[in-house]
């Protein structure tokens, strides 16, 4: 079926949009984006001053010298445009005058020299502007992206739990290019405005009536161009969900990670069908935009053509009545052409500034939202002295700690209280969703409790310097990130604030039973752990877990928190890991979060969690004697290892 021309297909596309692909429905932020895209052109001009101001401030912070050069060169070039047109008129006056040709040429020669000098200076200023913009762009990008990454890496972990923050972060991720485009667009808009003013001044000197006629001739077409650009921006915003879906489909159909499962489940036809449905909607919307832009441009061109014809009629009348000389008329023709080209260029730049400015507003909105999630600065309440160093762990207290996720009706952790002394090994066990990993994250300082307080050596966490407190805690996560660096760098990340120590790296790897595995890699500890790069290598899930455990051992922290550290390990590696953890007992403090209850039998205390609450506490022997939830779970696991009885 041809879906490229008829309106019934548009209706069909809308039905597909709503029924077949519900994920293409508008997100809440896109509804707001569409409203913004529908802003009248008066609203566009109302927003321009603030957008220009922001662009200038960013450029000024990034590189003051180049910002000044661009401003001076742009204004200077525009001023020279006025003198260039007036010099052109003077040349024409002399050339169209009376007398022998040689005399007329000699009379026009000084104006010609001046015109050549003006052209040379304008060319030089254009080179200066281009050079300054090339040098300014990377500095602007660095300045804006660094602010973005300072926010993304500095916010508390709970910021990522909210969809609003995630959406803001997604839209702001191209901030460097967006702000650069805004800065460049602002500079080009300024240049266009100065050039237009220069042409206006020159025409005004020739005859004020021509200036009015020039405005009538050029504004309709410029308005049509601005309106067309506005329609394209509205179309761009309205299609953001479709573009995201296409981006996902591109990765699903042309990426190494999905290739095996795509083939094993025969997903080729399904994914191609998804692609066809999305592109069907996209085609209809593109054609709808093309019709609107074509009509809009045609109307503007027609009105502008009528206005331009009026300019030529007025010019003829002025010539016929002797109101202006032929030289002024020729200069006016040149000025009209320059004004039309300049106004069209400036119209495009205004639309560019406005459009890029919307993305920059997304960036600023993200920074504002991120500011609400930043942890307190490491200062005392009077903000005069840094917070003190926490010192080695002597006692850790969990006092009535709770955590309530914003989208959940019941707390993930509910008023948990216990105390850990230095050298103890404790275990947090329970079924999936019992709250043990959330509690461990709060103890690690990754999440802030919504109720209760955590104490380190008798003082709340907030009383200590957060960076120094974090340095005394090692965390090994089950859902670890696979960093695309060398094996040595992956392990040394455990103490990134100190220079890598190769002997220490190898010792940590041995403790995690990763040393021999790493030596088997093509370049040993220098092997890049990402096959998408040259000479990179892939690791299995269990191998990555060994690297992650080695990272935790490398830090050699007072408190080591291990969340499901052996879920992907083979039995030999798992046994070696827990033997090393038992060696910490009585010396350093360890918190284990695991489903494998046989590995926590040696723990000094075991806390059994259920629905966010600690329901049982004791040693393995005490909990087995209690014959409660722990005993039930342990017995279920143990039964799987018993030989079947005849």
Automatic annotation (TrEMBL):
Membrane-topology descriptor: Multi-pass membrane protein
Record-annotated ABC transmembrane type-1 domain positions: 68-355
Sections of the chain in a coiled coil: none
Keyword field contains Metal-binding: no
Entry's transmembrane regions: 68-87, 107-132, 193-219, 298-319, 326-348
GO molecular function: ATP binding
Keyword Transmembrane helix: yes
Chief location bin: membrane
Keywords from the UniProt entry: ATP-binding, Membrane, Nucleotide-binding, Transmembrane, Transmembrane helix
Signal peptide: none
InterPro entries: AAA+_ATPase, ABC1_TM_dom, ABC1_TM_sf, ABC_transporter-like_ATP-bd, P-loop_NTPase, Type_1_exporter
ABC transporter domain segment(s): 398-636
SUPFAM superfamilies the UniProt entry points to: ABC transporter transmembrane region (SSF90123), P-loop containing nucleoside triphosphate hydrolases (SSF52540)
Compartment(s) of residence: Cell membrane
Name under which the protein is recorded: ABC transporter ATP-binding protein
The species this protein was found in: Kineosporia corallincola
């Amino acid at each position: 079926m041809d879906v490229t021309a008829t309106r019934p297909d548009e209706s069909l596309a809308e039905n597909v949009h709503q029924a077949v692909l519900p994920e293409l429905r508008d997100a809440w932020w896109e509804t707001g984006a569409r409203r913004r895209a529908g802003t009248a052109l008066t609203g566009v001009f109302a927003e321009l001053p603030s957008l220009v101001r922001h662009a200038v401030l960013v450029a000024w912070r990034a590189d003051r010298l180049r910002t000044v050069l661009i401003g001076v060169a742009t204004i200077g070039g525009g001023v020279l445009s006025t003198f260039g047109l007036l010099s052109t008129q003077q040349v024409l006056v002399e050339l169209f005058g009376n007398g022998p040709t040689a005399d007329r040429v000699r009379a026009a020669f000084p104006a010609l020299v001046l015109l050549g000098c003006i052209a040379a200076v304008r060319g030089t200023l254009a080179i200066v502007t281009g050079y300054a913009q090339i040098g300014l762009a990377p500095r602007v990008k660095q300045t804006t992206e660094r602010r973005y990454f300072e926010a993304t890496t500095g916010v508390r972990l709970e910021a990522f739990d909210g969809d609003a923050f995630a959406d803001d972060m997604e839209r702001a991720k191209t901030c460097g290019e967006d702000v650069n485009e805004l800065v460049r667009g602002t500079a080009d808009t300024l240049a266009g405005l100065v050039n237009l003013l220069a042409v206006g001044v020159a025409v005004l000197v020739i005859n004020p009536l021509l200036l009015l006629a020039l405005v009538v001739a050029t504004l309709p077409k410029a308005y049509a161009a601005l309106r067309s650009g506005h329609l394209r921006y509205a179309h761009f915003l309205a299609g953001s969900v479709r573009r995201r879906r296409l981006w996902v489909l591109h990765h699903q159909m042309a990426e190494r990670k999905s290739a095996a499962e795509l083939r094993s489940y025969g997903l080729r036809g399904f994914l191609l069908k998804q692609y066809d449905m999305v592109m069907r909607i996209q085609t209809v919307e593109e054609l709808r935009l093309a019709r609107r832009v074509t009509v809009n441009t045609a109307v503007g061109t027609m009105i502008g053509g009528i206005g331009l014809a009026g300019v030529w009629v007025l010019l003829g009348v002025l010539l016929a009545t002797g109101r202006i000389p032929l030289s002024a008329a020729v200069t006016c023709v040149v000025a009209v052409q320059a004004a039309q080209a300049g106004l069209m260029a400036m119209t495009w730049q205004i639309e560019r500034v406005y459009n890029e400015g919307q993305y920059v507003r997304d960036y600023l909105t993200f920074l504002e939202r991120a500011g609400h999630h930043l942890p307190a600065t490491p200062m005392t309440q009077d903000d005069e002295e840094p917070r003190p160093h926490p010192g080695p762990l002597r006692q850790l207290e969990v006092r009535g700690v709770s955590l309530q996720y914003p989208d959940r009706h019941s707390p993930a952790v509910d008023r948990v209280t216990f105390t850990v002394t230095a050298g103890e090994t404790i275990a947090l066990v329970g079924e999936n969703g019992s709250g043990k990993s959330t509690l461990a994250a709060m103890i690690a300082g990754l999440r802030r409790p919504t109720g209760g307080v955590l104490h380190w050596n008798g003082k709340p966490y907030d009383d200590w310097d957060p960076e120094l407190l974090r340095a005394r805690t090692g965390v090994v996560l089950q859902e670890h990130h696979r960093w695309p660096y060398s094996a040595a760098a992956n392990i040394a990340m455990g103490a990134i604030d100190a220079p890598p120590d190769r002997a220490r790296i190898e010792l940590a790897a041995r403790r995690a039973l990763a040393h021999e595995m790493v030596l088997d890699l093509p370049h040993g500890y220098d092997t890049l752990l990402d096959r998408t790069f040259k000479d990179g290598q892939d690791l299995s899930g269990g191998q990555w877990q060994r690297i992650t455990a080695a990272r935790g051992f490398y830090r050699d922290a007072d408190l080591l928190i291990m969340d499901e550290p052996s879920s992907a390990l083979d039995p030999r590696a798992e046994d070696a890991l827990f033997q090393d953890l038992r060696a910490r007992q009585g010396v350093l403090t360890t918190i284990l979060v695991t489903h494998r209850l046989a590995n926590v039998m040696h723990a000094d205390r075991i806390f059994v969690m259920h629905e966010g609450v600690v329901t049982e506490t004791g040693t393995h022997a005490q909990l087995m004697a209690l014959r409660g939830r722990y005993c039930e779970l342990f017995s279920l696991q143990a039964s799987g290892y018993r030989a079947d009885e005849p």
